[in-house]
Fis family transcriptional regulator
Amino acid sequence: MTNILIIDDDQMLCEMVCRKLLTLGHEVSSAHTLSDGIAAANEIAFDLVILDVRLPDGSGIEALPQFRAIKPQPEIIIITGEGDPDSAELSIKTGAWDYIEKPISMREITLQVTRSLEFHQAKTTCQPKTMLKRDAIVGNAPLMEACLENVAQSACTDTPVLITGETGTGKELFARAIHANSNRSSGPFVVLDCAALPDKLVESLLFGHRKGSFTGADHARDGMILQANKGTLFMDEVGELPIAIQRAFLRVLQERRFRPIGSSQELKSDFRLVAATNRDLESMVQEGSFRKDLFFRLKAAVIQLPPLHERKTDIEKLALHYISIFCKRSGMITKGVSPEFMHSLQAYSWPGNVRELVNAIDVALANAQGHNVLIPMHLPVNIRVSLKRRTIGNAVTPIGAGGERAVQRVDLPPLKDALEETERRYLHSLMARTEANIPSACRISGLSRSGLYARLKKYNINRST
Ligand SMILES: Nc1ncnc2c1ncn2[C@@H]1O[C@H](COP(=O)(O)OP(=O)(O)OP(=O)(O)O)[C@@H](O)[C@H]1O
């Protein structure tokens, strides 16, 4: 028997859905305000909560983290009379099962209730044996908690996982956490950076080769697929995997068999795949640069890591964590932080996400020699400039002839275009400043090598420019 709670101030709708779900053999309760709903959910272990957005005493979406914090955790289906893509996205990212617009079709709600309960049952019968090992992962913002829960789920299955997120959001860290929490943890964790694969050697790196199978193959070599036997193969920047190889790789993924170059014998490898990307694979499928069948295979389980600016409550924890680590590493007493320093960290947009924050802390500590407390002056110059430009832009508005402050009207491009233009210009300057020296460019930008290569490729920037 499953327990379902419906929270909606529309009593007719509640009755209608209750009747339908009772006929399906579920135990159903209802509440008509948010506070009654939260109280009920804390009292009884519901498997599923169907939650309206606009309630007389608050927003269902804003209360989502409270429902997600209840143990054992119920699944949540959001229902709304005024759907919009942003709140749909926020709901899904915060861990809701689905977001359904009213008027609700009984067919739709029945289908989603059935699916979410199946998922819930699989989840509860597949609880990780111990608490999730997450030592290296800092942060407990609701979006982060939802991702960690996905890690726990993924760790106890063997299906491929796709981790998406901007550069520096922690994709590799999460991939390692899935491995560390899985029953393959004593096996190898093999990293294949698809953005750094030399075209001619891709096949050999993946599948391995026999001695003499091509010019330069002086020794037989195991490919990464075989190296990952009994462990996890982490394919970073999977969107960069050459399309010619994708078909062969999909076959390996399905059959766990492959043939090294120059060999007539098929080998087996029992590996688990975790892939990561910061590209939009769906658009790549539409453009024809990524295979649809591989995409569908990968997207069976997706963990979408939020950018740092969407989980600002984690910034302080991350900063303090890394200050403590770096100070210990260099044998100094842990430095303190001024409120202004923390305020600057909160105000900055962190396009390079956690990697950029880690880098900024490292630079700040180096700049703070002889000081016990970090202040904004210790931050990297580019961050201070960015913060200053923002405050100046806000404070100074043109003064009209009559002395009044005029509101400047400019045609603004869509945010995505503006961000891409800024990124493109930044990369040009970066390449010019470092004379296309990749290690220096990575150090300054806080990008990984693969992240940098992917961006140079995206904007068609030649390393010789
Ligand atoms: N939640 C977190 N807690 C602590 N450290 C983190 C967290 N997320 C990321 N980091 C740190 O930030 C840096 C970048 O993380 P990682 O390499 O996993 O990002 P990524 O998303 O794989 O980046 P890219 O797409 O550029 O390869 C690493 O030093 C990592 O340890």
The domain at 309-395+414-458 is CATH 1.10.8.60 (Helicase, Ruva Protein; domain 3).
